[in-house]
Write a sequence for this structure.
């Protein structure tokens, strides 16, 4: 089955993207990476003999992959066209899930904003109170060591 998946993935990759990388997973599945579109497709054997589990997700900064955003089971007998259409639908869902949030756009499932203000991502170069306490303790231990060394020679 893994040889058949590899062949199907190679053909499918050519249909989906001009630039792609195809590799085999440890679990026996096959992954198609489209670095230029920052997406990936995974094909793995499904429960049925003639079925394949297709999963789609994003490629994050640094080249790591995010978990699958969507998945579907497709019969291999359906052909490359049906498989490619399913992949395109899953990739579109993954792209829609990854769309950046804009303040004017409502978040699905949330009717009103919570009373809590959003915490800013960067707080600047300010050192927190806890960090000052730790620094003071370290300075105290060093001072104690220097004092005891000076007193006992």
């Amino acid at each position: 089955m893994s040889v058949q998946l590899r062949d199907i993935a190679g053909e499918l990759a050519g249909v989906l993207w001009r630039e792609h990388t195809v590799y085999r997973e440890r679990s026996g599945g096959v992954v198609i990476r489209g670095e230029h579109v920052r997406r990936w497709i995974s094909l793995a054997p499904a429960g049925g003999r003639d079925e394949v589990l297709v999963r789609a997700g994003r490629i994050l900064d640094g080249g790591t992959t995010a978990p699958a955003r969507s998945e579907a089971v497709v019969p291999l007998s359906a052909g490359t066209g049906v498989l490619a259409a399913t992949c395109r639908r899953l990739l579109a869902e993954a792209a829609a899930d990854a769309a950046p949030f804009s303040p004017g756009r409502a978040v699905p499932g949330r009717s009103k904003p919570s009373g809590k203000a959003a915490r800013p991502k960067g707080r600047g170069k300010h050192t927190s109170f806890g960090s000052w306490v730790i620094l003071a303790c370290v300075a105290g231990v060093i001072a104690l060591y220097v004092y005891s060394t000076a007193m006992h020679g």
The radius of gyration is 26 Å. The helical segments are 2-16, 80-97, 129-152. Residues 101-115 have pLDDT under 50 and may be disordered.
